[in-house]
Amino acid sequence: MRTHKLTTVAAATLLAISLAPVANAGAKLEITEDSFINLGAGIRTTASGTEDGSPNGDSWSTDFNVDNIRLYLSGQLMPAVKFTFNTEKIDGDIDVLDAIVQYEPSKEFNIWAGKMLTPADRIEMSGPFYALTWNQYTVPLYPSDQGGEAGRIGRDDGVTVWGAFDKFQYAVGVFDGLEGYSNQDDNLLFATRLSYSFWNMEGNPAYYTSSTYYGAAGDVLTLGVSAQYQEDGTGTTTDAEDFTGYAVDVLMEKVLDGGGVVTLEGEYKMFDADLSAAARASADCFCLFDGDAYFATAAYLFADPVGIGKVQPYVRYTSNSPDDYDDSDLTEVGVNYIIKGHNLRLNANYTTGDANASGYAAADDADSFSLGVQFQI
User: Fold this and answer.
1) I want to staple 295 with a disulfide (CB 3.0 to 4.6 A). Which of 121, 194, 202, 318 is the partner?
2) How far is Cα 356 from Cα 155, in angstroms, rounded to an integer?
3) pTM higher than 0.90, yes or no?
4) H or E element that contains 316
5) What is the mean pLDDT of residues 83-87?
6) Are 163 and 106 in contact (CB under 8 A)?
7) Domain residues of the chain, as ranges?
8) What is the CATH topology of the domain spanning 106-376?
């Protein structure tokens, strides 16, 4: 994979000098009547502490971390031909996140090619910036979120066809998936997401999602189903197994008469990656979760502002149940302070438990606390 480090940042900064500001959309450079370039940015940063998480194992850890730093670059050559190029901090470097050529002739049928989000469940389609909770990656994730051998940060190289018919939306894609390891025949990964909105249609770009709209989308009730499959998609060179995963997710958001907003989100996920104990013990295994998991979230956005923002307390419970290992769970209690939707919010949360994105318990139950800031333009 090509590396675009600080040169990418410098180039984007120089470009920004020539761009005129656009309300709520970063900056826009108009080239012709039909062609333009948009530029934006996003940052999430956290201060956190974990009980017994210090090097001595007896004291609370104290950590400051920049979780995400993204530059968004997109544009249009003509009404049906567009592109997206986004960057992210990956392993300490600024690297390519998305690189997509987009042919979008109609609402019903569109084709994307390049490096993009694989169709998946709502939490992966929302990403960290459009999540409701701060720590949403506590259930097992699809292969493209498992460290880089099958994609990175939910992205992979491939092609996706997507569109919508009234309140039904679809996305179907084919991707590289796992390369090497158990996949010696170079089989492709197939991914799909189907959703139906019973109330208002969600207004996200393409097949992306959000886990809350803070009431701005009105009443929302959407059921989504995602699935991925790759032959020989998990295991080792000598001990390969097929990977199958699917998830069912539901989002309900109701605006009450007094202006308050109730949000409920839930998901059930099942992965089939039936590997032998010897394969899982191997250092050369691309091992995926095998079992089922679920989470449920409830939140309430108060109608009346407090200062310059609104308060949204929430609670989330996660349960992961591997077939051959001990179960794990995690409870998160937090509060968002919403200043400008997903573009500017503060967060404080407390978590207790041992569930994480691998689906397996990595350690004993731990208590953690964090303060976070999210900014986008």
Assistant:
1) 318
2) 20
3) yes
4) strand 310-322
5) 97
6) yes
7) 1-43+67-105, 106-376
8) Porin (2.40.160)
